[in-house]
Design goal:
By secondary structure, this protein is mostly helical. 67% of the residues lie in helices and 0% in strands. It has one domain (11-59). The chain has 3 helices and no strands. The longest helix has 20 residues, at 40-59. It is elongated and about 50 Å long. The termini are far apart. InterPro entries: Ribosomal_bS21, Ribosomal_bS21_CS, Ribosomal_bS21_sf. Keywords: Ribonucleoprotein, Ribosomal protein. Residues 32-63 are annotated as: Disordered.
C-alpha cells in the first residue's frame, strides 16, 4: 500500500486515507485470519456456519 501525500494535505488526513485503503483491501482481515493455525475441520465448520448465515440473510428469516 502506498499513499502519496499532497503538498496541501496534512498527515492526519493522509493517515485516514491510508486506513480506508487498508480496510477496503481486506489486509487486516487477512492478517487476523492468519494469526493462528486453523485446522481443516475448523475451517470447514466456520465456512458451513457462514454459508448458513448468508442463506438466512438472503431468505429474510432470523434464527
Amino acid at each position: 500500500m502506498e499513499i502519496v501525500i499532497n503538498d496541501d494535505e496534512n498527515v492526519e488526513r493522509a493517515l485516514r486515507r491510508f486506513k480506508r485503503m487498508v480496510l477496503k483491501a481486506g489486509i487486516l482481515a487477512d492478517v487476523r485470519k492468519h494469526q493462528r493455525y486453523e485446522k481443516p475441520s475448523e475451517r470447514r465448520k466456520r465456512e458451513r456456519e457462514q454459508a448458513a448465515r448468508n442463506s438466512r440473510r438472503r431468505s429474510g428469516t432470523r434464527a
